[in-house]
Give the backbone structure.
Amino acid sequence: MLIASFMSVASLSPAPVRKFSKNPLIAFYQSSIGKKYVVAGTGLILIVYVLGHLVGNLQIFSGQERINAYSKFLHDLGPILWLVRVFLLAAFVTHIVATIQLAQENRLAKPRKYAVTGYQRSTMASRTMLISGLIILCFVIYHLLQFTLQVTDPKFRHMHDSLGHHDVYRMLILGFKNPFVSLFYTVGLFLLTNHLSHGFASVVQTLGINNRKIASFVASGGQTLAWVVFIGYVSIPVTILLGIIK
Amino acid sequence: MNFKLKVWRQKDGASPGSFKDYDAKDVPSEASFLEMLDIVNESLAASGEDPIAFDSDCREGICGTCSLVINGIPHGPGKGTTCQLYMRRFADSDTIWIEPFRAAAFPPIKDLVVDRSAFDRIIEAGGYIVVRTGSAPEANSLPVAKHDADLAMEAAACIGCGACVAACPNSAAMLFVSAKVSHLGLLPQGQAERESRVIHMVRKMDELGFGSCRNHYECEAICPAEVSATFMARLNQDYALASAKKVLAV
């Protein structure tokens, strides 16, 4: 009887779902930690981009000439700009694909949730990474359609300053004058902040750099940096709506 | 003290389970949580009902056999194991939810008992060192830096109870594996197999159906042995370095 009950248990235990290739590089990606490295590595690339993009955008406060010259500089890079764009797009897609694969594995690993939730340490940010990430994806698509491809408002394409450069300055002001655009932008940025407040520290942990001495600094530093990103980006639509930048 | 219990009952792994209500009456406040269940079981046995099955062994907070998820928290509120949880932590007439550890890699056996032998499979995959046995060598012949010895001892404190897996929303075994990999990887005796150990243990962990870490650190918060989540960063680094060496074939 006892043996029979144990055998029924054995037959229920999950069959090995994950197999590993003989090729060590493929096997690394097939492992949970390998995929996490890919998510963290691409996350780091995107974090560097978010910070670089912020520095670029903040030039709006230095006036029309400065930010339009910056935009011309970027466009004059030509093939290099496209190389960077393809690289960023690849990092973005890989970040999402690897995360979705991990999420599927994790769903299988926890087939039943507890009747009572007793979270001790996790945060709202850490528990909503997947959903905040997917909404950020929607935001990024809209953002690219609006300011990069300029399909939401065709007027943007024909804006030139006195030097004949594309007038990014007026495009931003015109775009953010619409309170709905600004609101959607702020919501998108808030979700990005939420994502990064867990993401920054997670990158350090997953890449194996974290240790006891720096752990609390990494956690609070990550949150601070995420809010710096929020304030930095959102300062642009806020100052435009308040009429400080005209 | 009196309590209302909502206990997960499941005949065996093949049958579906459900919560059943029980009244725990006249429980002394100094009773441990497991002793409270013993009291309930005595009344169940007296009335002819099948007693609630749960794991326990040393009841001294050392062995890691006792499990249970109490009100959503593995080993219940506070640090330490379930056997070291006393009923005075609860208020009189509290409702207490008692569930088994839930993870695909820990299949249910009966009621609150799950099969945690997946941890043994992970240890078999590399959680050991190969040495000549015999008389103990001269202790001072193999110096260990104080810092490394302390860290290794901290990792070795893991009692393999599985609460980290139970607490993790992804049922990841990362804290357990990181403790075992680090405890040997920090000591000179563990260096010979350091790379193969981390690769084999991580792969076994994946094969057995444990999830991956999303850095919630629920595991660290409930670990009765207070194993630090920074060991998982160490595990990540060890695993990546060992994999890189394999890729470069050095």
About this structure: The first strand of chain B starts at residue 3 and ends at 9. Residues 173 and 248 of chain B are 28 Å apart (CA to CA). Chain B is about 35% helix and 10% strand. Chain B has two domains: 3-110, 117-247.
